[in-house]
Design a protein that fits this description.
five-stranded antiparallel beta sheet; globular; 27% helix
Length: 97
């Protein structure tokens, strides 16, 4: 699942906000989740998510105009993609606010 959320804040400000609010990322996933976060690159956040008995890994890339979420949902959760997409898009806007 790939989702780009546009913004007008600039790369540096989005990166700052993502660092400051990284503890809120568990709320992006329906039903809550345990989220482990690393920053392997300056503009890439890597996430390991455990939710609903499943593990999901993914990245969030910060660009000058978008926040790009890229997650591979396991087959058991594929049917949830539309719901996950909607929740991530909505809550991503709140993270950037």
């Amino acid at each position: 699942m790939r989702l780009a959320v546009p913004h007008t804040l600039g790369r540096d400000e989005v990166r700052r906000r993502m660092h400051a609010r990284s503890d809120e990322l568990a709320g992006l996933f329906p039903g809550g989740a345990q989220v482990d976060i690393t920053w392997p690159l300056e503009d890439r956040m890597a996430l390991a998510v455990k939710a609903m008995g499943q593990s999901v890994s993914g990245t969030i890339d910060v660009t000058e105009t978008e926040l790009v979420f890229d997650f591979a949902l396991p087959g058991a959760l594929a049917f949830l993609e539309p719901m996950v997409r909607g929740v991530v898009e909505q809550k991503a806007q709140k993270l950037l606010a």
